[in-house]
Design brief:
- The protein is an alpha+beta fold.
- It has a single domain (4-118), classed as 60s Ribosomal Protein L30, Chain: A.
- 24% of the residues lie in helices and 30% in strands.
- The protein has a six-stranded mixed sheet with strand order 1-2-3-6-4-5, with helices on one face.
- α1 runs parallel beside α2.
- The chain starts with a strand and ends with a strand.
């Protein structure tokens, strides 16, 4: 089955791509609809990133409940506790598998998240 790309981006990537029953969401960063990094700390940035993940999933007809795996990059591991509190609100039951690492990020942000969803056609 060929892949299907959803959404547009100002960089060479698709926000979401379906490959069979899986939907892959590109790494989402804490930018608002104007493309500006949201003000605030890890809590505000995590909320925006997860809103962006949700929006990318919706392009492919998925919801947060369909997410089976996430990968998270935190700019500072000391933000893990606050990040985890916000993240848990978005996955209140049956949370996906997750990998979380500390990493220098491509722009001056505190968090980036990519996701994989499973939703049979």
């Amino acid at each position: 089955m060929p892949k299907q790309c959803f959404g547009t981006s100002h960089v060479p990537l698709s926000p979401a791509v379906r490959a069979g029953d899986f939907v892959y969401v590109s790494g989402q960063v804490p930018v608002n609809s104007d493309g500006q990094v949201v003000k605030g700390g890890i809590a505000e940035q995590t909320e925006q990133v997860l809103a962006n993940v949700k929006a990318a999933l919706a392009l492919a007809g998925c919801t947060m409940d369909d997410v089976v795996k996430t990968t998270v990059w935190l700019e500072d591991a000391r933000d893990f506790g606050i990040f985890n509190t916000v993240y848990a609100r978005h996955f209140p039951k049956n949370p996906p598998a997750r990998t979380t690492v500390e990493s220098r990020l491509m722009i001056d942000i505190k968090v980036e998240i990519e996701a994989v969803a499973y939703k049979p056609l």
